[in-house]
Amino acid sequence: MKYLLPRGLTVRKLAVRVWNASGDDAIFGRAAQLSYYFVLSIFPLLLLLTGILGLFAEPGSEVFQSLMRYIRTATPGAVGDLLRDVLVEISQGTGNFILSVGAITALWAASAGMRAIIDGLNVAYRVPEARPWWKAILVAIALTVATALMIVVALVTLIWGVRIGAYVADQFGLGTAFQIAWQILHWPLVIAFVFLAFMLVYRYAPNVAARNWRWNAPGALVGMGLWVLLSVGLRIYVGQFGDYNRLYGSLGAVIILMLWLYLTGAAILIGGEVNYAIGQAAAQAGERGAEVHEPRRAA
What we know:
Elements: H1 11-24, H2 27-53, H3 62-74, H4 79-92, H5 101-124, H6 133-172, H7 175-204, H8 217-240, H9 244-248, H10 252-284
């Protein structure tokens, strides 16, 4: 991480700046707002993803079961079971969904979460939303599609990783050594796709002029790392200490989902604060392409 920092900015100074800025920008309150929009958008997004994966992952198939296993691993508590039930129900009725008008409606609803992320990152970068309303909506939709594709590619790499390695080894005569190496290397590929999704969000979501990709990488690393750590921490807490199902019954899974989405929003916004703090420090140190500038208003 220190190699991505400009001259004169230490990790400790960065942490202090980000903490103070997060308080000034009410980041944790805005993360609560994000969680509400995420709830509105997560099921349409699942509908889109299932419509794509449903072309070759029918409910009950080995591929679908693998997908459910990874979802339960990645989500805390009973959230995995809740999402599984929703996925099973919508998978049975998707049919030619991707080719229907319903896909457009689901995409519009799913982009609500991205529009909320845009608003939150504009606050983190201290810029107003000066883009025309239609342009901001198009950016939100484009980023929703791009991140959904990154998720699909990551899931395909997870689910079919071993088979892909076996196919490549068989076609090019690479032998079992390549297959063994691929079983290890396909995990960094999954991480790379998730990292790329974070990079795209930090690069195009806020209303700032183009910056060097280098200055978006620290926030993407912090945001992704925080999201993974908080998700794992919440999963451990719910599994060991927080018996939400006993307290709230069937609503327990929904409450855990809201909490997980709240932590997800906080991780994304904190990553934005990291990028802003590093960009300002780099600009003061004379680095080019690091400044955060609001682009000119459209004529």
